[in-house]
DNA sequence: CGCGCGCCATGTCAAATGACACGGACCGTT
DNA sequence: AACGGTCCGTGTCATTTGACATGGCGCGCG
């Protein structure tokens, strides 16, 4: 039921992979385990540093490291995953397919984000997760998930925190789809992505390098492909957002935020798991 | 910034309160504390029963019980709450206001739901919460929140579970706003509400008694009031959904689910907090 | 009773968005 | 060089949805 291909929007395919930070791509597979001590997440802006005991415990918890190329599926809607992931590097999308092929992209995931929390509770997955760039994830076995709460309360607290943050992000998206028109939604999404990029150290000179097709934008914002295209051009003419296949630029974040009526703090530090 | 009143849709006002289960309303205030032993939530369909140690601990955690009348605000957008709530009885809505008065209702809350998790993390609230019916909440002090993870890992686990469930609900709503047309959205919302009502024992003979104005429906689904009205009538003529001011009836849930392209398990038991 | 008010219904027209069709740029493969 | 694939741009028209105006109905209230 989750694989119809007659959607009104075309399905994404693997394409030239883009690494968010310019790192060299390596062969896929689950080899070369990196010790948590050298975890690339530590030290990034926007991530609170973990304490030492915490790190040691996480290391013992970690089971393996996995890589995906752009376009590959990390999690499949309708399935049950046995592992919980932390995104180390790259960008993912989470989306849901309806039976007739309509697709709703629910959120973008950046380094530090949790992947598959639903699966950790033994629920059937309501969405798929796919790599937008070459990506590296850190995997934890699900069955040891409950141990976490017992042996490391701080981590468990952080986990709840992350779930609450993810929920807050969905709330933002929901407001966008419900109340904003096409151009406002586009401005909102561009700002959202750039800010997430900044927080995870993936933005250079105000420009986020990330290849997103207009079809994906449309499926995130609930717009048709054509209307997305036209609205994007209009925003470009206004100088608010310049969004190409491989880059997203918002010259004046404040102007764009005000255009889209976004309020609230843009930067909230995330805990480290 | 959160109080503009010039919205294109009218603001809800207090009106004849409706109790979901026919209980007699009592005077507002925070008096007459009910021991958790007699918690009205226990034994309801859809709630997993707590074990004894857990209950005792929750009882020590509980600080007070609060009541609200229809139309009263439980939490205010932009503020910081110092308490975390569990909804004992009644129905609430959670909504966000934009500066120009547009309103997006983010979710409906039913007995057993957590209220104010964001606030528990000391974040500024991004939404308001308002009572749709006479409501009773059970309040916990925020500063003791962290103790929970330490002393009762199972509860902490449940908390994460609840946050994940709430996130899944928002994902459903997001799919609705992004991919479904007006009538599908209405059918979806009606089914969603009836099913939540069933799960919390608030539905009688396939009909949910809950007063929701068309303006509130419109603000939940991102539709104009007028269009909501017309689409509602069309659904009624089709025999799919009969939604009046004070009742929601879905004669054939399966038909409505299929009309709205809903899939996945409708009933998932919730833990007890 | 008459009034104000919240809510729902409906008519008419306008605006936003979607559907379909086509062309063109780019790029890897043969 | 020709081909097929993906993606972006644009023209034309259809559909969905929104805006505005108006009336009706029930209900609490002085």
Please give the structural blueprint:
Two copies of one chain form a homodimer.
Chain A: H1 52-61, E1 64-68, E2 73-75, E3 83-89, E4 92-97, E5 103-109, E6 114-115, H2 117-120, E7 128-131, E8 135-141, H3 145-151, H4 153-179, H5 182-199, E9 203-204, E10 207-209, H6 214-221, H7 225-238, E11 242-243, E12 247-249, H8 253-259
Antiparallel strand pairs in A: 1-8, 2-7, 3-6, 3-8, 4-5, 4-7, 9-10, 10-12, 11-12
Chain A binds a DNA duplex (30 and 30 nucleotides) through residues 8, 10, 13, 15-16, 181-182, 213-215, 223-227, 229-231, 233, 245.
Question: How would you characterize the overall build of this protein?
Answer:
Two copies of one chain form a homodimer. The first copy, chain A, has two domains: 36-172, Jelly Rolls (Sandwich); 173-259, Arc Repressor Mutant, subunit A (Orthogonal Bundle), CATH 1.10.10.10. Chain A has 273 residues and is an alpha+beta fold. The first copy, chain A, has helices spanning 52-61, 117-120, 145-151, 153-179, 182-199, 214-221, 225-238, 253-259, and strands spanning 64-68, 73-75, 83-89, 92-97, 103-109, 114-115, 128-131, 135-141, 203-204, 207-209, 242-243, 247-249. In chain A, helix 6 packs across helix 7 (225-238). In chain A, strand 11 (242-243) and strand 12 form a beta hairpin.
């Amino acid at each position: 039921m989750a694989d119809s291909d007659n959607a009104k929007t075309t399905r994404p395919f693997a394409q030239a992979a883009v690494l968010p930070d310019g790192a060299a791509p390596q062969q896929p597979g689950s080899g070369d385990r990196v010790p948590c001590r050298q975890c690339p997440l530590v030290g990034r802006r926007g991530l609170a540093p973990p304490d030492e005991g915490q790190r040691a415990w996480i290391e013992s918890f970690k089971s393996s490291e996995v890589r995906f190329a752009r376009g590959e599926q990390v999690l499949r809607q309708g399935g049950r995953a046995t592992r919980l992931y932390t995104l180390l590097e790259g960008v993912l999308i989470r989306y849901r397919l309806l039976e007739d092929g309509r697709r709703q992209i629910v959120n973008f995931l950046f380094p530090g984000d949790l992947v598959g929390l639903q699966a950790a509770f033994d629920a059937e997955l309501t969405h798929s997760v796919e790599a937008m760039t070459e990506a590296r994830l850190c995997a934890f076995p699900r069955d040891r998930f409950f141990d976490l709460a017992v042996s490391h309360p701080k981590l468990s607290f952080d986990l709840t925190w992350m779930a609450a943050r993810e929920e807050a992000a969905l709330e933002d998206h929901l407001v966008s789809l419900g109340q904003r028109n096409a151009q406002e939604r586009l401005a909102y999404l561009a700002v959202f992505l750039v800010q997430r990029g900044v927080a995870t150290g993936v933005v250079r000179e105000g420009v986020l390098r990330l290849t997103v097709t207009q079809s994906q934008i449309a499926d995130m914002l609930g717009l048709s492909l054509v209307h997305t295209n036209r609205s994007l051009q209009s925003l470009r003419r206004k100088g608010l957002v310049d969004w190409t296949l491989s880059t997203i630029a918002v010259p004046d974040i404040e102007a764009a935020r005000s255009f889209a009526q976004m309020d609230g703090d843009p930067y909230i530090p995330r805990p480290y798991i």
